[in-house]
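TL;DR need structure tokens for one chain.
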Amino acid sequence: MTSWIANWPAHGGRRAALLARFGLPSDYPLIDFSANLNPLGPPAWLSDWLTGAADRLAVYPNPDDDAPAQAIAAQQGLTPEQVLVTNGGAEAIYLAAALHAGGRALVVEPTFSEYRLACAHYGLSVESLALRGEAFELDVDAAERAMEGAVESAVERTEERTEERTEERTEERTGEGARAPASVLFLCRPNNPTGTLLPFETIERLLARGFETGTTVVVDEAFIDFSDEGALTPLLASAPNLVLLRSLTKLYDLPGLRLGYLLASPSLVRRARDLQMPWSVNALALGLVAPLLADADYLSRTRTWLADVRPGMPEAVRALGYAVPATQANFMLLDCGDAAEAEALFAFLLRRGLLSRHTHNFPGLDGRWLRLALRDSADNAVLLEALAAWRRA
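>> reply
TL;DR here they are.
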């Protein structure tokens, strides 16, 4: 059991590795519920665009081309100086960690494992802020105490603030066992894998305390386009310690393209750009930013699909006797009771041609849940029948 868990793929969409593990042929037909991508598929015009853009591959990407940042800024109501285009959401995560190399990080968990990996890469110590209960709620008071760094006694501090930097140099006199204030807080909204979403007011409260403690709040909004709730972009105007991370590959079903972006104050964006690897974003990805954002029809069809499946699908799964938290994303989390039951259900679904996502590498879930993407009505019906069959068995 232990080695089996240790070798479990760390991301969704790993068909080949899982089919081989369960002794199934590599061409075994699967419906992929493990990767949280838009089931509409890439925009219809993309194939022709790529054919016409082949000449872009013969030259280096133009490092001075600010058209992609301008397109994002126009859509988000920001200035291009607040935008950094990245090689997928993953590079944005690693740059956010690099900004605080060697510091102390807090990660709201269970969540995407890449935050911890990025922090480890840049020498940050990591502490977990555990979401509580079946609704996966954050203890905001505990989060504020962790940001302060106080353990047993009050902390006195003097602070120096500048307009250009969000960091505050802090001198502390503390009781024994106190820690330094957190350099950075990572959280995901909507959260992967729970699908839950911290309210706007909670983020404002965390930002206010973070400004006092010199803590940057990094919010991964990779799935915000699938949510009914608003993005946090308006807070950038008043919160210099806020960094937002976004992905375009999930919304437009382009995981192989690697295209994301980071939003922050101009000073933080400049520092992140200085840390970014040269040529990290390829010419095709850069050229696609503006046409993707201009495709209003695709976004409208995505909203229509979500309105059709998200209310009904989790409720239909609950009706079969499974516990499913409320979700504000394009996926749902299913409680199997324990890890052995989850693994058995995973294998049952796989052999019926349905690939789900394990939760062994999500701290606090301990493998007893399965994450399932929301897909089109036909695929969802197949999944419901399989879950019903498991219950009958």
